[in-house]
């Protein structure tokens, strides 16, 4: 599995960014794909995910109402539309895949595959 993120950058508070994750080699059976982020000196934290089985979605509380995850399955790409960004959203954002969503319920240790990350900086 290869995951390549893009779309990070510098944006002012209240602005928007769309992150993309181009995925290849995904499992043929069920998987969950989504995003984690890591602030300096902090552990990676779950942000959002989408299931390959039924397209059900997960959002951490801080992302609800501001972020939207979507998948273009034919293109093998997952997007994270981030609106009304805040300085506390500043982090490295990583695309991730696991087999059953455990990573987004229990933590980054359950992630099977990681992308290289893309940096998001929100200025106040």
Explained architecture:
It is a single chain. The protein is mainly beta and 124 residues long. Helix content is 4%, strand content 50%. It contains one helix and eleven strands. It has one helix at residues 102-106, and strands spanning 2-6, 9-12, 17-24, 32-38, 45-51, 57-59, 67-72, 77-82, 91-98, 113-114, 118-123. Strands 2, 4, 5, 6, 9, 10 and 11 form a seven-stranded mixed beta sheet that branches. The longest helix is centred in the last third of the chain and has 5 residues, at 102-106. It is globular. The mean pLDDT is 96.
Oligomeric state of the chains present here: single chain
Radius of gyration: 13 Å
Find the count of extended strands (DSSP E, 2+ residues). 11
Order of helices and strands: EEEEEEEEEHEE
Profile the largest sheet: 7 strands, mixed
Proportion in helices: under 10%
Q: What's the mean pLDDT score?
A: 96
Distance separating the two termini: 37 Å
> What structural class results from the helix and strand content?
mainly beta
Approximate shape: globular
Give the DSSP E fraction (strand runs of 2 or more residues).
Answer: over 45%
Tally of alpha and pi helices: 1
In the predicted model, the low-confidence regions spanning at least 5 consecutive residues are none
